[in-house]
């Protein structure tokens, strides 16, 4: 039924043989009966519609064997006289006649341009009944109930809308402005183009500039962490210039590491190892960097894990949470690309029903990554969408379902309730679902990311992390602090906005980049 209606909408205005239209007319009537009164009104033909397919004709529709003429009669839809103003096409002849009547000059009744209806009661032209060509005796009075017809029985309103220039009262073809009559400019003058355009032959285009080769992901990571690492290594070098390692320098070093967001635990590990190796001795910046990289890697190695998919679940459900702007939607697109590229069937669900652009954005990612997409309207219940998505992904035998969510921390209570509900309804379909709850963290955030993990872990049961925007001016030290505290797996890192800019998290690489060392 719905498909048939959509078909009707898209074939609207196309000609069809009458015998094909009769069954559809019956179907349309049934659909109209199903629709709410207000929505039905929206689909009924309006007088201003240029042409209506017969199946939409509220006058009863043609019988299967109806002749073309009788079908046309059934189709006659006239604009009401009081709608003429809305249509914006009051015939010039009528206006001129009105003016002439006011001036007491009217001599012959004005003619009605074909395709225009008569004016009715209340109209200043009422009673003139000058709607057909020829003398007043040939005029057919307009009635509210009946379509206006000419003497030949042809429906005037059904005729094409062509102005009867020559018949206009007091008007001739000569005094109608035309390009020719406008003078020689019309044919000879250069067209005046809008601002921003120019005429003339095409200007030669400059040679394309060779693009700078794309940096490797580690180079981007290093560049992203450069602020952290260069600040840190610069300060460390300054600290140990001409100084032996003592309690004061160790305390100063600990402060520097904490300022770089690495966290107290990691800072103490670094200073502890350094003290055990070099206490009372000369220390170079390089010594500290090496120990720092070693200790950071020790913290990160246990959390650098691959994202485990249990494909015995069909689908494996991944719920993606995080504060808005941290890169959830983009990361979902990148994940979908990797998975569908590997031959898995992926569905993405636009559970961020709070922001229209997020739904659009995910749809684009779905198209780009050849993933199934499910979305709903703005403001709809996200948990309901998640439930439908799970059911549909199951029905379509998807391997992985990835659900986007909203991340409005500013309305924490609502957000919590929404996320909790999503987790709850998914659990109704499979007690283990969602199988993975991924949180995205923006690497430019710093200390705040630590609080974010705390909140989302409690609300949604986060069991894995992805840090995004490590290619920017990142403050990646916080990932070390988060890992030391929460010990949550870190699956990937985002090193750009492109579809391929998601890399598996490698503890040593990350540690080296923070410490300003090579790969
Ligand atoms: N440089 C860089 N930009 C990124 C990365 N990941 C995401 N972005 C950009 O960050 C911005 C926000 O990303 P989204 O994916 O819309 O973030 P979101 O969490 O879904 O945001 P909401 O829909 O508002 O909740 C976008 O402009 C992304 O292109 C990354 O790894 N590197």
From TrEMBL:
Span of domain SRP54-type proteins GTP-binding: 489-502
E.C. number: 3.6.5.4
Topology within the bilayer: Peripheral membrane protein
Residues forming coiled coils: none
UniProt catalytic activity: GTP + H2O = GDP + phosphate + H(+)
Subcellular locations according to the entry: Cell inner membrane; Cell membrane; Cytoplasm
Broad class of where this protein is predominantly found: membrane
Keyword entries, A-Z: Cell membrane, Cytoplasm, GTP-binding, Hydrolase, Membrane, Nucleotide-binding, Receptor
Binding annotation for GTP: 322-329, 404-408, 468-471
KW GTP-binding (keyword) present: yes
Disordered: annotated segments: 15-69, 100-197
Transmembrane segments: none
Feature: compositional bias, Low complexity: 127-151
Bias-annotated ranges (Basic and acidic residues): 26-46
Pfam families in alphabetical order: SRP54, SRP54_N
Family matches, as InterPro entries: AAA+_ATPase, P-loop_NTPase, Signal_recog_particl_SRP54_hlx, SR_rcpt_FtsY, SRP/SRP_N, SRP54_GTPase_dom, SRP54_N_sf
Enzyme class: hydrolase
NCBIfam families xref list: ftsY
Role this protein plays: Involved in targeting and insertion of nascent membrane proteins into the cytoplasmic membrane. Acts as a receptor for the complex formed by the signal recognition particle (SRP) and the ribosome-nascent chain (RNC). Interaction with SRP-RNC leads to the transfer of the RNC complex to the Sec translocase for insertion into the membrane, the hydrolysis of GTP by both Ffh and FtsY, and the dissociation of the SRP-FtsY complex into the individual components.
Quaternary structure annotation from Swiss-Prot or TrEMBL: Part of the signal recognition particle protein translocation system, which is composed of SRP and FtsY. SRP is a ribonucleoprotein composed of Ffh and a 4.5S RNA molecule.
Family: Belongs to the GTP-binding SRP family. FtsY subfamily.
Protein name, as recorded: Signal recognition particle receptor FtsY
Annotated organism of origin: Rhizobium sullae (Rhizobium hedysari)
Gene: ftsY
């Amino acid at each position: 039924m719905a498909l048939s209606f959509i078909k009707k909408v898209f074939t609207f205005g196309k000609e069809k043989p009458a015998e094909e239209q009769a069954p559809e007319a019956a179907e349309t009537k049934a659909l109209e009966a199903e629709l709410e009164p207000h929505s039905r009104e929206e689909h009924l033909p309006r007088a201003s519609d240029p042409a209506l397919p017969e199946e939409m004709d509220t006058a009863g529709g043609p019988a299967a064997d109806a002749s073309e003429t009788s079908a046309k009669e059934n189709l006659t839809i006239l604009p009401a006289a009081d709608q003429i103003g809305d249509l914006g096409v009051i015939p010039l002849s009528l206006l001129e006649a009105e003016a002439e009547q006011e001036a007491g000059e009217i001599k012959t009744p004005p003619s009605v341009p074909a395709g225009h209806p008569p004016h009715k009661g209340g109209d200043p032209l009422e009673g003139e009944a000058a709607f057909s060509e020829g003398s007043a005796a040939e005029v057919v009075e307009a009635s509210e109930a009946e379509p206006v017809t000419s003497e030949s029985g042809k429906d005037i309103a059904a005729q094409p809308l062509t102005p009867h220039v020559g018949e206009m009262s007091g008007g001739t073809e000569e005094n109608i402005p035309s390009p020719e009559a406008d003078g020689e400019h019309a044919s000879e003058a250069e067209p005046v183009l809008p601002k921003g355009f120019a005429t003339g032959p095409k200007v030669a285009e400059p040679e394309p500039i060779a693009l700078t080769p794309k940096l490797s992901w580690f180079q981007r990571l290093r560049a992203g962490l450069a602020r952290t690492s260069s600040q840190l290594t610069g300060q460390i070098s300054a600290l140990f210039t001409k100084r032996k390692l003592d309690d004061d320098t160790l305390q100063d070093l600990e402060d520097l590491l904490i300022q770089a967001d690495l966290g107290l635990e990691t800072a103490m590990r670094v200073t502890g190892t350094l003290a055990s190796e070099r206490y009372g001795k000369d220390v170079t910046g390089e010594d500290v960097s090496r120990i720092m990289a070693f200790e950071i890697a020790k913290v990160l190695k246990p959390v650098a894990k691959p994202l485990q998919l249990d494909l015995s679940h069909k689908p494996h459900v991944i719920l993606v949470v995080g504060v808005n702007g941290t890169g959830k939607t983009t990361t979902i697109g990148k994940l979908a690309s990797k998975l569908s590229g590997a031959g898995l069937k992926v569905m993405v669900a636009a559970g961020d029903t709070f922001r229209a652009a997020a739904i659009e954005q995910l749809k684009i990612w779905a198209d780009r990554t050849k993933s199934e997409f499910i979305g709903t309207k703005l403001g709809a219940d996200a948990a309901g969408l998640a439930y439908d998505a799970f059911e549909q992904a199951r029905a379509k035998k998807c391997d992985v379902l990835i659900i986007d969510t909203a991340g409005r921390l500013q309305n924490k209570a609502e957000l919590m309730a929404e996320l909790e509900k999503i987790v709850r309804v998914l659990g109704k379909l499979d007690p283990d679902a969602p199988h993975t709850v991924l949180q995205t963290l923006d690497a430019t955030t710093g200390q705040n990311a630590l609080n974010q993990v705390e909140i989302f872990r409690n609300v949604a049961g986060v069991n894995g992390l992805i840090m995004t925007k490590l290619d920017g001016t990142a403050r990646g030290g916080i990932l070390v602090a988060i890992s030391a505290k929460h010990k949550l797996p870190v699956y990937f890192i985002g090193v750009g906005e492109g579809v391929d800019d998601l890399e598996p998290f490698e503890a040593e690489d990350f540690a080296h980049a923070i410490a300003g060392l090579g790969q």
